[in-house]
Amino acid sequence: MERDRFERYGRACTVVAIEVLGIDVLQRWFGDEIAREAVDALLSSAVRRTRDSDLVALTGWGNIGVILPETDEVSAIHVINRIESTYDDWNERWLVSQSTRLGTAAARLAMGWASAGPDRSFDEAVVAASDRKDEAKRRAEPVAAGAGGPAGMEPVLRS
User: Fold this and answer.
1) How far apart are CA 112 and CA 150, in angstroms?
2) 63 pairs with which residues across the strands?
């Protein structure tokens, strides 16, 4: 739908890809409920910090996509910062309260964004945003990998 509008009118459109890093660590060590809380916090942060015309969707476990119609990359950065700030507020409230059990690196975000325009199709923008997110994830992995498990804790056992 948004792709058709972009192609028809040729207006700016930015695609954002966001992933909760360490979601599997949260799930393994604290259970499904806490991991789901992290994903819900990201989703609600994105919904609260975007306009009614923006599209927010869960694109996979711990991943969301945001389409910002009529928004160039420079303007998109402001939206991305607002989403990250709102998510960080949740991160601070919950994870800091658990700081003796879990390092805060386990719920950081990796983000990527790209605009479609005269030199880049909508589909190319989706790929570019995903590639940027993956690069941010690779840069953060040494930190997130250090959160292999809280000291003195065993993973939540499921039947």
Assistant:
1) 29
2) 19, 60
pLDDT digits (tens, 9 = 90+) for 39-92: 998 999 999 999 999 999 999 999 999 999 999 999 999 999 999 998 888 877
Q: Cα separation of 98 and 46, whole Å?
A: 24
Task: Tell me how many degrees the CA angle 117-123-125 measures, rounded to the nearest 5.
Answer: 50
Question: Two tokens at 67?
Answer: 């389409």
157: left (phi over 0), alpha (psi -120 to 50) or beta: beta
Residue in this structure with the two tokens 């605009």, named with its chain if needed: 115
Give per-residue pLDDT as tens, 96-118.
Answer: 666 555 544 456 899 999 999 88
Model's pTM, two decimal places? 0.80
Q: Can you tell me which residue has the tokens 């325009």?
A: 117
How high does pLDDT run on average in the chain?
Answer: 81
DSSP for 77-101, written as a single string? HHHHHHHHHHHHHHHHHHHHHTTTT
B/e letters for 110-132, b = 16+ CB within 10 Å, e = fewer, are bbbbbbbbeeeebeebbebbbeb
* Residue 67, beta-bridge partner list: 15, 55
